[in-house]
What does this fold into?
Amino acid sequence: MKLSLTSLGPLFAVIAVTLFSLNDVTMKFLSGGYALHQIVLIRSLVGISVVLLFMMPFQGGRAALKTGRLGAQMARAGMVFFANMTFFLGLAALPLADAVALFFVSPFIITIFSVLFLGEVVGPRRWAAVGVGMLGVLIILRPGTSSFQLASLLPIAAAFGYAGLHIMTRYLRDTESALSMVFYIQLMFIVATLALGLIMGDGKFAGSDNASLDFLFRAWVVPTRADLPSLLILGVFASVGGYFISQAYRLGEAALVAPFEYLALPLSILLGVLIFDEWPDLVAWIGIALVLGSGLYTVWRENQLAKRQSPKRQG
It folds into this structure.
């Protein structure tokens, strides 16, 4: 059976989500011993090597990296940098499942942005699913209670950067290759993290008891031999996952591709339990269930609409 280009969008999103989930676990594992900007720099150096040595030769060579819209490319890369840094800072202080669930305000924002900026059509049932998902995020966030943490706002901040990233992907998709999008992201990461390293890499701002701030301000250290495979994995998964998610949003409608990213929720729960022994409490389970349920309903609804429209296309 031959898949259409539209069908490849969700498939590529699933691949990317799996790689990003493994990336999150590795990042959380390393967050207690290294500075965030040092990890991201090493990851990006590995990632850009993967792009140039293993991906570029099969995607048209150096011509695939050319761009006539450098400003838009760098703006998109800046959004990715902001989303990554804020999410990983939150990940250092929060359980894996909670951080991922809070981050999942992003598909709702993407759906809204796709209507406002891309002119895509979203029906009332999908809007209702977005509302239910937002309620789930609020339940996990627990504003106004003793369980609320300021670090919980970091994945939400990341969600806005992530939503902007995908809207920019749709904006650039007709003229820019997926490989060029990955390349300029890695380039932005290298430049930005080198700058952060020069400013705070000596650890002069370190010493906070807050896990997120400690992750940000910790001094750079020489990586141990035992951690080198993890750092290598981060770079490979980030670059390959970035390529697939760029392709997903280039080939598929944003409001259709976005729900498939909800697969990160069950993956984060499973990995959090198996690796970090982090079991969500009852309130978190309720919020996660609402977010996951609304996402799965949206996927089902889109499939139903696609089936109804396909005979018309054929006729």
About this structure: Confidence is low (pLDDT under 50) at residues 311-315. Residues 196 and 257 are 34 Å apart (CA to CA). The longest helix spans residues 282-314. The radius of gyration is 19 Å.
